[in-house]
Design brief:
This protein is an alpha+beta fold. 29% of the residues lie in helices and 13% in strands. The protein is built from 6 helices and 5 strands. Strands 1-2-3-5-4 form a 5-stranded antiparallel beta sheet. Helix 4 (100-121) crosses helix 6 (172-185). The longest helix is centred in the middle third of the chain and has 22 residues, at 100-121. The termini are far apart.
Length: 187
Amino acid sequence: MTDDFGKPQLTGQDGVGVHDALQRLWTPHRLSYVKGEGKAVGDEPAGCPFCRVVELDDESGLIIARGSEVFAVLNLYPYNPGHLMVLPYRHVPDYADLTVSETAEFAAFTQKAMRVARHVAAPHGFNIGMNQGVVAGAGIAAHLHQHVVPRWGGDANFMPVIGHTKVLPQLLGETRQLLADGWKALD
């Protein structure tokens, strides 16, 4: 097929393709996540990013708060600003594997995460949950983690649906600092 000037026309699968009106936000840092690099496999904590992150200082590891048996960390690939996770230090895959004391601190950290987010960012609601096992959607199934995602009316407005763009108005380091300061303020 040629254009009006006799040049070959490109289809969506040729060369650079045809413009499709979608915006592209290049996020090469996510490729390791997509490839599954650094994911814990099985019962072994060796190589688990959640086990490694606790060895870093709080700022480098995006850790918001540390308890005696669990910790709160900002999600490296957030769905929304302030998206954090609560995890046990112990490398266990299933909620039923937690001890009674781990379960209590896990719940207390989840409640505090909600209070902190309300204090510093005034979300209208939250998505809270965990995916148990790869088949259920867990990105890192070998180390239990619960997501706490602040939500605002209109946070999923036209940008992702029509604009094909996700807007995160704050850098992760700034979000971590805001939440960590809020956590300490509510002690």
